[in-house]
């Protein structure tokens, strides 16, 4: 729309955006009128399709990525007094989920060039109280699962994958969802596929899957639909769970979206290649390094700016041009809640330093090469 002087500004480019099409709308409307609004047939259909898409035995649908992480913590037996190792560079939910179960997050530092968890730092953080490690597939690149699985196995601790950034990514050809004891996904609208809010846990362990299905339903051992089908009214609440159920209507949306996930991942990879090519000419802008054995699903396209550049000024300059740059993340323990719990600056020096130099650039499947050039031109000007 023209402004008061008749100048037409290009549209705002957000850092991430959902793709909703006719097939999604049709699936949602059909389910809305099917009679099933909450747990119905679409839940199991979505779970089975998601499990198949990554090659996991089981998938358990929940109503957010955060709920997925919480369910995973419970299923692997995280308890009061335990420690859970979490990378410093992640969304707070990766660490919060440990606190929900009474455990303490212990923050590990990250590798400067990938922002994935630094395996040496993980090793240094292990103590007799360590119950689990959370690996985060930062920006869409899988963490070093070979090394992390080996550490976990040799110490008798569990590995949870926070794969919220990485559906469709691979490590040595193996898909995310199969790389840890339990893997967690988010279907928030900025992610690769959406159910509005929603999440999924995948695992090859059917006992853990059954546990997570109870946990998402108050800790009750059967759901309303299965009791109706069996003509029974009795149920038992065997442990304290939550209402983390993902409704049928949202699972219908998830099913419709899932079928387009491979195409969206490929579109993101193509956009990343455009960016990579442009930044190869600009020494002040360094894309994150991608390990050759890992296929990146590119939830985010993150660059590191040269230390002499004022990142916040560049951020403001991009925003002034309608480019929705963002920052992922400040180290989790720098949030005031964590500071009040006693975590202090200095814990993870690499994360603290690099978090001040990074910028997330727009990345979503319907972005055009022209959009990418607009971002590159604006960033080139702002960092010149
Ligand atoms: C790494 C990571 N973990 C967990 C979550 C939580 O997912 P949700 O927003 O679906 O609860 C997010 C979402 O932003 C995330 O990026």
What's the topology here?
Elements (H helix, E strand, L loop, with lengths): L21 H11 L8 H14 L3 E5 L2 H11 L7 E5 L5 H8 L3 E5 L10 H7 L4 E7 L8 H11 L2 E5 L7 E2 L2 E2 L6 E5 L12 E5 L2 H10 L8 H7 L17 H11 L2 H19 L5 E3 L6 E2 L5 E5 L5 H10 L15 H5 L8 H6 L3 E4 L7 H15 L1
Parallel strand pairs: 2-3, 2-4, 4-5, 5-8
Antiparallel strand pairs: 1-9, 6-7, 6-11, 8-9, 10-12, 12-13
Helix pairs in contact: 1-9, 2-9, 3-4, 3-7, 10-14, 11-14
The structure holds pyridoxal-5'-phosphate.
Keywords:
Aspartate Aminotransferase, domain 2; alpha/beta; three-stranded antiparallel sheet; binds pyridoxal-5'-phosphate; Aspartate Aminotransferase, domain 1; 14% strand
Query: What is the CATH architecture descriptor of the largest domain?
Result: 3-Layer(aba) Sandwich
Overall pLDDT level: 96
Number of beta strands: 13
Query: Beta-strand level of the residues, as a percent range?
Result: 5-15%
Helix tally equals 14
Report the uncertain regions: none
Please list the strands of the largest sheet in the order they lie side by side.
Answer: 1-9-8-5-4-2-3
Number of domains: 2
For the biggest sheet, the summary is:
7 strands, mixed
Q: Using only CA atoms, what is the Rg? A: 21 Å
Please identify the structural class as seen in this structure: alpha/beta
Helix content: 25-40%
CATH topology of the largest domain: Aspartate Aminotransferase, domain 2
Small molecules (ligands, ions, cofactors) in the structure: pyridoxal-5'-phosphate
Which shape, going by the Cα principal axes? globular
**What's the CATH H-level superfamily name of the largest domain?**
Type I PLP-dependent aspartate aminotransferase-like (Major domain)
